[in-house]
Amino acid sequence: HIHFIALVLPREKTVLTIHDLRILYFRRGLRRFVLKKLFFDLPIKKLKYVTAISEATKNEILRHTKCDAAKIRVIENPLQEHFYNQTRKKFNLQCPTILQIGTSPNKNLSNVIKALKGINCRLRIIGKIDNETLAALTENQIFFENAVNLNDLEIRNEYEKADIVTFCSTYEGFGLPIVEAQAMQSPVITSNLSPMKEVAGEGAVLIEPEDITSIRNGISNIINNESLRRDLIKKGIINVKRFESSYIAGLYEELYGEILDKIR
Is the pLDDT of residue 50 over 90? Predict the structure, then answer.
């Protein structure tokens, strides 16, 4: 959140990477106006080079700033090297562990909880949960566990122990947990919205995030269909290749090379 630093950096040699514009959706009035100017309008107007982590984020930038589309290049997020798993644990049919990464409103945990009512499972929630969420978990009789402030290795271990990963967000700039879960050979359920559906490729069950029945059916299909699980894992492993850190670094190297050539 230091986009405004671009205002004092050289136009021809600075690259601004924008992950999302979510801040514009929960600010109002004068505060939103000032943040929009400092974080997006003025830096983007000044700089020659901007990268966005998804086509969806690029489209948001264009919609909100009306800038020249030619100055925005899409370079997706890389997968960290430790998020790879060579083997897959046996799926727990009796009581599968469902991993939910994130608890902010856009992560749509409330609908996931409602969708799980009556499904014998363990919901593993990573992130702080408030009293409203606790009440929903109790009301829907969900067996759950909660963890916060995990480091990268601990997050990796969560994927390794999970039977299913849910990422049914209503809004994302990218959706890296989708790729992390695929690399760890976990079946994934995510939203049929951009950019999640593009990030997931063919390696996830896509659901309508505002439709509790859609989420429930997606989870039930994975639990009850072994061939679907195998297919999701296989396609997920193929999908993550386009997010390898060496490939993403190469795209930035190419951009930096172009900048240096023009400066010289």
Answer: yes
